[in-house]
Amino acid sequence: MTKIIAINPGATSTKVAMYEDKELIWKEEVTYNSQELEAFNKVFDQFEMRLQDIEELLDKHGVTEIDVAVGRGGLIGPVKPGAILVNDALVNHLEHHPILEHPSNMGAKLAKALMEKYGQHKPAYIYDPVTVDSMRDVARITGLKGVERTSTGHHLNMRAVARKVAEDLGKSYEELNLVIAHVGGGASASGHEHGQIVDFISDDEMMFSAERSGGLPIKAMVEVIKKTGLDQFNHLVRKKAGLQSLCHTTDLREVEERIEAGDSEAALVFDALALGIAKTLAALAVSVDGPIDRVCLTGGMAYSKALCQKVADKTAFIGPFKAYPGEFELEALALGGLRVVNKEEDYHVLEFTAEG
Fold first, then answer.
1. What is the pLDDT of residues 150-209, one digit of tens each?
2. Pairing assessment for the beta strands 177-183 and 187-193 based on DSSP bridges
3. Which of 60, 66, 85, 48 is nearest to 5 (CA)?
4. How far apart, in Å, are the Cα atoms of 59 and each of 56, 62, 117, 200, 230?
5. What are the pLDDT digits (tens) for 52-64?
């Protein structure tokens, strides 16, 4: 039995799970309040606290030895999908030269520390980081030279869903064409062609979500930026937009309750949410060569049967629809690590310049 620890550090929590081969043994979540986190100036200042919390979980469950630890990959920059070896250069890059500050940047260092204590210094890995990039060059082009579309979002969960689709259909991931949207607090979507994400829509491009604005008309936004300033505008479109702006809540269940009570404005927003998701999936479908085997919705909002039905109806011309509610990130980390240990999958070793 291969003993695997999967670690997913998020903005206000650290999720940890132990697997033995493909079987989940336990899963825990350590949560942090705003006062606890405000005590730290930088994300990596939280490292010792988070590591101690993970070690306490392992001690609680009587874990004394593990075979592999896999952390969520942070904002490294464009990388191939799959497993990446954690070495000192990667940890240094994520700590000192990430694209953006985010708790997921600690995933590599946390996994490495656990292997040093519980894994006899055997290798640690990260898997399917936020910045996985296999987009076709043609999909990067925008109408403004020097500005390109990027591939930053929920790769880990969407590629996990793609593998689940393959299991459902009795085929390999490499045989399938898929379009998948992840919608929760944030949102992103991906077009999969025979095992590669050939196009990607980030959370600033099209559909809105619980907190994100999605795509916005540029001419109107110029005036908003003049009024708010760039920093406040960024906070507005990433934390105070979407359902939060339109309905003053980030909970889709509350929106549905308002609709049941006869709130016509909530119903209109709900329909707009479904339309935005469907438009995003349709846009990705034309980037994938060949028929679409399945249209998928995942993330927290995929628990809404009403939303899924509306998206399914609007995308029926693309292909059959299936929802995969929630997120499968810990499972994806663990199974990715298992494939590497079993030599079913190779891992990458990244190289960095002195400047990161």
1. 998 999 999 999 999 999 999 999 999 999 999 999 999 999 999 999 999 999 999 999
2. antiparallel
3. 66
4. 5, 5, 12, 40, 46
5. 999 999 999 999 9
Cα–Cα distance between 82 and 159 in angstroms, integer? 10
Q: How far apart are CA 155 and CA 161, in angstroms?
A: 10
Q: HSE, CB side, 13 Å, CA atoms: give it for residue 163.
A: 13
What residues in the chain have per-residue pLDDT under 50? none
Q: Can you read off the two tokens belonging to residue 197?
A: 């994400």
Give Cα 79 to chain centroid, integer Å.
15
Tokens of 34: 């705003």
Going by the DSSP 8-state scheme, the letter that residue 302 receives in this structure is G
DSSP secondary structure of 35-50: HHHHT-SSGGGGHHHH
The pTM for the full model equals 0.92
Which residue type is seen at 287?
Answer: S
